[in-house]
Structures are given as C-alpha cells and as structure tokens.
C-alpha cells in the first residue's frame, strides 16, 4: 500500500527532488499550474489555499514587474510541495512525530539558510 502523504512520481509528474531539501531547481517538481495542483491534491487544505492565493494575485502591482505576485505564489507552493515529499524532510517530520530526537534542533540546521527562500545565506548566517 502506498503512503498517502507522499506524492508518487508519474511520467507526467517528475519525482520529488532527492538532493538538497533547502532548494528547488527550476526543472524540479511540478512544471505547470495543472501539475502543481495535481501534486498538491493529497493535501486539500493546501490546494485550496494555493488556489485562493493564485486567484487573488494581481497581474501587476505598482513598483513591481508584471506577473511577480503570481510567480511568488507559484514558487511558495512549489516549496510547500517539496517540503511534503522530499525524503529528508518527510523522515524528519516522521521522526519528530514519533518522538525521535536526533539531537540537532531545527533552528541549528536552518541557521545557514534564509528563512524565506531556503537558499544558503550570503550574510554569514546572521538573521536579517
């Protein structure tokens, strides 16, 4: 029986990323709105939030490039999807729920990564 918390790879939907759990390359994960909605389908509340935010995102805002808000919503939910399916993150969540303590607090693990983009910090690891 398959695990309902994992998105299974199909020929039309790429496999979950298997390298760093803190970044999602442009060619990884869902590559269209339809694929992203299908990937988020196992989590109906998350899918509903994504759809609502996407519907509310303007095509243009003063002072920003066109379609920026839409791209930001799509990027945020691709990261949400990755957090649900990446093997390292799934294992960490399962360990946490099972009360397994590996001795490394999350804030220590994430100290070298930007809390918004999950990219490695360029500011020497200091919080912005």
Report on the architecture of this protein.
With 128 residues, the chain is an all-alpha fold. It has a domain at 33-112. 43% of the residues lie in helices and 0% in strands. The protein has five helices and no strands. It has helices at 33-40, 44-56, 68-85, 87-97, 106-110. Helix 1 packs parallel to helix 3 and helix 2 (44-56) packs antiparallel against helix 3. The chain is globular. Residues 1-31 are annotated as: Disordered. Keywords: Plasmid.
Structure summary:
The chain has about 130 residues and is mainly α. It has 5 helices and no strands.
Features:
disordered N terminus; plasmid; 5 helices; mainly alpha; 43% helix
CA radius of gyration: 16 Å
User: Which stretches are poorly predicted, pLDDT < 50 over at least 5 residues?
Assistant: 1-9
Rounded to the nearest angstrom, the distance between the terminal CA atoms is 44 Å
Sheet/helix structural class: mainly alpha
Percent helix: 40-55%
Shape assignment: globular
Q: Largest sheet, described in full?
A: none
Look at the structure and give the mean pLDDT. 77
Number of helices: 5
Helix-strand pattern: HHHHH
Work out the number of β strands.
0
Beta fraction: under 5%
Keywords: Plasmid
Region (Disordered): 1-31
Please render the helix and strand layout as text.
Elements: H1 33-40, H2 44-56, H3 68-85, H4 87-97, H5 106-110
Helix pairs in contact: 1-3, 2-3
Region (Disordered): 1-31
Keywords: Plasmid
């Amino acid at each position: 029986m398959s695990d309902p918390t994992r998105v299974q790879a199909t020929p039309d939907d790429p496999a979950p990323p298997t390298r760093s759990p803190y970044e999602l390359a442009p060619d990884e994960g869902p590559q269209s709105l339809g694929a992203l909605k299908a990937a988020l389908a196992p989590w109906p509340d998350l899918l509903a939030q994504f759809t609502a935010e996407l519907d509310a995102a303007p095509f243009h805002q003063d002072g920003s490039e066109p379609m920026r808000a839409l791209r930001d919503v799509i990027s945020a939910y691709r990261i949400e999807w990755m957090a649900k399916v990446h093997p390292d993150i799934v294992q960490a969540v399962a360990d946490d729920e099972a009360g397994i303590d590996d001795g490394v607090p999350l804030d220590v693990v994430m100290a070298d990564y930007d809390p918004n983009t999950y990219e490695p910090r360029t500011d020497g690891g200091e919080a912005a």
